Inverse folding.
């Protein structure tokens, strides 16, 4: 959208001493501010609407005159948390996301290290295949095997299936991270008498902490948000939040206030995590994107 | 992931030397660390993919239905012929999958490029815009689907209220047979344009300023500089963004199932291949048929990825 800049004025503006390029004409500046405000509104308004509706009674939700002016109530939240047992689902979601992320880090970080250092492209491709395959094609065989083992509805199976999402993500992010770490430190550590594994453990791993944090946070988010695997493989006791929300609408008429409260309860924890770890999430999502 | 220096591996492999200090197990572990490190993850993924995938291929050749445990008969390519001749569910689902992915990606890449360019140079309040970009991206898709259900509700939804203010009659959105797919595409664009923005912004920031500066000195206007300098340089990153987003868009399930339920609505108006295959497997227990659909679906995904990778190689040269 730099199209608005007029060439003549831009050239005139740019003095050789200035390092940063001039932003262009006043018209472009105004356009940019307006455009950015519109973008922010477009992205945040729906979430804000969801939050508002979660604080309304169903009568107020149906009253279009009370779109923004109403007396807020926390009744929907009380209902969702107490009557519908959402505390249990929150704990389930957290547990599944946490354990599957932790196990995927234990398996994935050394694997990514080996694949990066030894250029194991084909092996990396096998792990990354997991990101490409449609989940449904794995669910039928999994369901068969796990129901024969009487394990469907148990945490183990759910965690296993979520690791399947988390592991490729962690390997992918950590590979591009290890690629960018200089090898010299490890080499000098080995010259100083450390074994290669020792050098990995004492030198590389501490340096990779921020990479591991990135991969771990993203994998936690993906696991928290995962719907399809839990829809098939979770049971009454292991139901995660996305499935619980989905069940909310299977009843005859939709309790909009409750549904929006439930939707808010699912998204708020993950958004808070995202706000505090913004830098990591951005670097994880764009990992490997700008390389050749 | 593809670029690595060969000298690196050569030098580390030799470094097994000083391992003698830690006894024979340690020496062995250090010598074989390549596979010691990589094998657990690969075995995990291998067992969970290769076996199920082989099974899916096998199931697609049988008449398995009802219960996966029920006796099945080998029927050869019959399921594939049934599916490929199915003009009512399969081909429309293929069309919807490609339309959903194509239209959503087109909007996401164009809007994403626009927003990335707006964010490219530093400005005051940048932090807040970045937060706004991050939030849709991390929101749980099922919850997002429910949120849009309320906003697009024909009677009480905010969108129709807004339209009413400017005199446009209420639209059916998700409940309309012709408007449902478009509405779900809109939802996808809302949630995933930020992802494209982040990827393209990372690309823009890593560009060297020099070509742009040189063109500016030569008198090129901003429009020309974007189309003749920035865009060609950004093409590899654009294709990476399309690749990453495309894989997920083809497989979109959560928002479709959350907003329209089984079978993609009563007229299958948002039934994509993934929703169709899921329904065949878990709502109707037609395992043989669904496996055939899945294998074909998988081939479509691999095919489109291959085409994009070829394209990327062409533009990277």
């Amino acid at each position: 959208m730099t199209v608005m800049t007029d060439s003549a004025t831009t050239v005139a503006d740019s003095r050789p001493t200035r390092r940063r390029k001039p932003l262009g004409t006043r018209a472009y500046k105004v356009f940019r501010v307006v455009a950015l405000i519109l973008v922010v509104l477009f992205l945040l308004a729906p979430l804000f609407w969801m939050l508002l509706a979660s604080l309304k009674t169903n009568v107020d939700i149906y009253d279009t005159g009370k779109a923004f002016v109403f007396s807020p109530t926390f009744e929907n939240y009380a209902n969702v948390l107490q009557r519908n047992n959402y505390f249990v689902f929150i704990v389930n979601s957290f547990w599944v996301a946490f354990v599957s992320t932790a196990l995927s880090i234990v398996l994935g970080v050394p694997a990514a290290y080996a694949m990066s250092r030894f250029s194991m492209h084909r092996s990396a491709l096998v792990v990354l295949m997991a990101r490409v395959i449609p989940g449904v094609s794995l669910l039928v065989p999994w369901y068969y095997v796990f129901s024969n083992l009487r394990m469907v509805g148990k945490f183990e199976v759910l965690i296993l299936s979520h690791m399947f999402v988390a592991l490729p993500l962690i390997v992918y992010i950590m590979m591009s991270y290890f690629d960018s770490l200089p090898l010299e430190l490890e080499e000098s550590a080995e010259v100083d008498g450390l074994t290669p594994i020792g050098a990995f453990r004492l030198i590389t791993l501490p340096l990779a902490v921020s990479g591991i944090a990135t991969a771990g946070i993203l994998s936690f988010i993906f696991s928290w948000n995962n719907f399809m695997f839990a829809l098939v493989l979770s049971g009454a006791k292991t139901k995660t939040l996305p499935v619980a929300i989905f069940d909310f609408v299977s009843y005859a008429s939709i309790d909009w206030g409750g549904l929006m409260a439930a939707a808010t309860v699912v998204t708020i924890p993950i958004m808070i995590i995202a706000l505090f770890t913004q830098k990591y999430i951005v670097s994880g999502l764009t990992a490997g994107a700008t390389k050749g | 992931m593809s670029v690595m220096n060969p000298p690196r591996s050569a030098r580390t492999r030799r470094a097994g030397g000083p391992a003698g200090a830690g006894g024979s197990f340690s020496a062995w572990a250090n010598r074989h660390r390549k596979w010691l490190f990589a094998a657990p993850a690969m075995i995990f993924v291998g067992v969970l993919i290769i076996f199920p995938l082989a099974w899916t291929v096998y199931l697609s050749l049988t008449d398995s239905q009802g219960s996966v445990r029920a006796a099945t008969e080998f029927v050869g390519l019959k399921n594939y012929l049934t599916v490929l001749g199915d003009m009512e569910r399969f081909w429309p689902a293929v069309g919807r999958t490609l339309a959903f992915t194509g239209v959503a990606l087109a909007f996401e890449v164009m809007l994403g490029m626009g927003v990335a360019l707006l964010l490219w140079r530093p400005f005051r309040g940048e932090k807040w815009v970045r937060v706004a970009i991050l939030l849709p991206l991390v929101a749980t898709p099922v919850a997002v689907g429910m949120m849009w259900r309320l906003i697009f509700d024909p009677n009480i939804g905010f969108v129709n209220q807004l339209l009413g203010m400017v005199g446009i009659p209420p639209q059916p959105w998700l409940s309309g047979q012709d408007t449902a797919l478009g509405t779900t595409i809109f939802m996808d664009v809302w949630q995933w344009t930020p992802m494209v923005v982040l990827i393209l912004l990372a690309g823009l920031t890593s560009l060297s300023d020099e070509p742009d500066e040189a063109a500016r000195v030569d008198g090129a206007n901003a429009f020309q500089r974007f189309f003749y300098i920035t865009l060609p340089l950004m093409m590899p990153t654009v294709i990476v963004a399309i690749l990453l987003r495309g894989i997920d868009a083809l497989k979109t399930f959560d928002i479709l199932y959350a907003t329209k339920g089984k079978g993609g609505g009563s007229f299958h108006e948002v039934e994509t291949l993934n929703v169709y295959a899921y329904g065949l497997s878990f709502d109707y227990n037609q395992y043989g048929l669904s496996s055939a659909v899945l294998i074909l679906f998988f081939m479509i995904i691999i095919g489109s990825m291959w085409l994009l990778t070829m394209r990327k190689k062409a533009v990277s040269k």
In short: Confidence is low (pLDDT under 50) at residues 1-19 of chain A. Chain A touches chain B through 121 residues (CB under 8 Å). The two ends of chain A are 26 Å apart (CA to CA). The CA atoms of residues 5 and 24 of chain A lie 5 Å apart.
